[in-house]
Protein: Membrane-associated oxidoreductase
Amino acid sequence: MIIGDLFEPELVLWEAFPTARPVDLPGTPVRAAVIAKMLLGARERLPGQTPGLHLSGARITGRLDLSYAEVQHPLVLTTCDFEETPVFTGARTGLVDLAASRMPGLQAADAVIGGGLRLEGCVMDGPIQLAGAHVSGTMNLSGTRIHADLAVHADGLIVDRDLLGANAVIDGELRVAGARIGGTMTLNGAQVGRSGGLSLTAEGIVIDGGLSCGHGFHSYGELSVQDARVGRRCVFSGARLSNPDGIALNAERLTVEGGLLIDEGFAAEGEVLLRGAHVAGSLSFAHASLVNPGGHALNAPLMEVGSGLRATPGFVATGVVFLDSTQVRGSVNLDGGKLSNPGATALSLRRLGVTGRLSCSEGFSADGEIVLIDAKVEGSMHFHGAALSNPGGRVLALWQVIAGGAVDCCEGFTAKGTLSIRDSRIAATLCFAETTIDGDLHLRGVQAASLKIGPETVLLRTVDLRHTRVGVLDDVPGRWPAHLLMNGFTYDSLEAPLPVQERLDWLAKEAYQPQPYEQLAAVYRRHGHDEAARDVLLAKQRRRRAGQRLGARLWGYLQDWTVGYGYRPFRAALWLAALLLIGTVVFTVHQPPAFKPGEGPPFNALLYTLDLLLPIISFGQETAFGPRGLQQWLAATMIAAGWILATTILAGLTRALSRQ
Structure:
């Protein structure tokens, strides 16, 4: 280049280049072609000096085109105003620093930029093209403002150190699909995307040092980190994502080697999708708000979490929280959460696996159904203090669930709707103490160590206990509702077995079935309350009688009045004594004639009556004397009554002796 062709400002820059001396030319025009020629070797080097171009404040005219060039010197053009888009396509350069400059865009696809790329504070009226580029240092977009539909196109970008974009305003899509970041990617405070479009597209990205889209970060449109792999932590704490009726956060099959934080003021308008995500550390939704009415607020099936899932306190979700087939090492804590999806499923936990406990307590509320089907929780399940509401439907469906501890629906738990626990195994207590359920309670096919119904329990509708088995029934009989279904309900013992009348009133709440009476009687016998067991079996016969035909009922009344269906042997003894007295008086007044006068023993009215009443013992009176007329009918009646009464007494004695 002939020096005489340079303008005075360009000559100053020419002289400064060999020593990399900074030049400040506010508002002064400098031709891009002059800059390019110096960078490409038109200006000779000075021995012992490191050349470089350091220019600030200038207005760069023409196009700075370094396509496929090899630039060995640092290029620093800060606070400059570019008339045309700089082009670095395919170039190999050292440091490129365009901080605080204004330009129509930047083209640097497939470029190799050593020492870093600084675009901090730039204003771009067009896109940045960095597809396939390699930045060996840090790439800094902090505070940059970019306006374009595809604002940053950097698919396949490689950044050896950090990618910084804090407080940037990217009015359009930031696309870094398939990129590789050796350090961290930080977008705290940035605004990215346009409503109804895409914001951050980072599908398949690999970030070794962690991703932070934290406090102050705003996303407009869909943010996608689908199939991404993030080392250390992935942080969305305090971020705000907006994509109504669409996907606000697409983290499908995301892999995080540390924790995933979607908490501390995080707010999403639209679906948060975590299907198939793998989080080696903990997953937090504390103080997060997810809003997607009528759709999935959180769609996270097939997820794996290595160190617990926490959504407490302050977690709010409008729409379905969907965690089917999710596996969590550690506990799932939703205490204090507020879920709302009226008339539909609010929380779905089908095939959930948890090595710790599941807690939805301490102010937790759900407007809609909670579904736990074919799930396994190795610890306890806590719902104490929770408020569940789904009028006209189910509030909680616990079906085919295995709980390694208790299922706690105590201490202020309320439900407006049907609560259903079916075919589930509970290793400890199933508790409904201090509980109010305004709906049916279905406990069918459940196995539990104990079932607790406390003195302050309020059950307003039907309770179904059919085919449920518990070790200890710890209840207050009067707290059960008016309608019970208990056929097949079994329990090994009663915490408070007496008084028996309360238990009989409890059994009377169900239409007659023999099994509940047999079950209660068996438990009383195991407790050693034999009299109570007989009372229960007598009550069973009386209820059975109510459904029989007239003839059977009359016979039943007779058995009841006389011997209490065999469960009141003392009555048989009284009847036997009464008949003995009657017979003795009658046969004393009207002695029956002898069969063979003069040959038999002397007549004794008492012994004769005993002979008639006792079917086995003989005193020789019955065979010697034969009654006539009405006495004959009296004798026949006594013989029949004697068989019945004596057999009843003998059966009672046999039961007593066998228990000894």
Notes: The first strand starts at residue 23 and ends at 24. The two ends are 123 Å apart (CA to CA). The chain is about 20% helix and 35% strand.
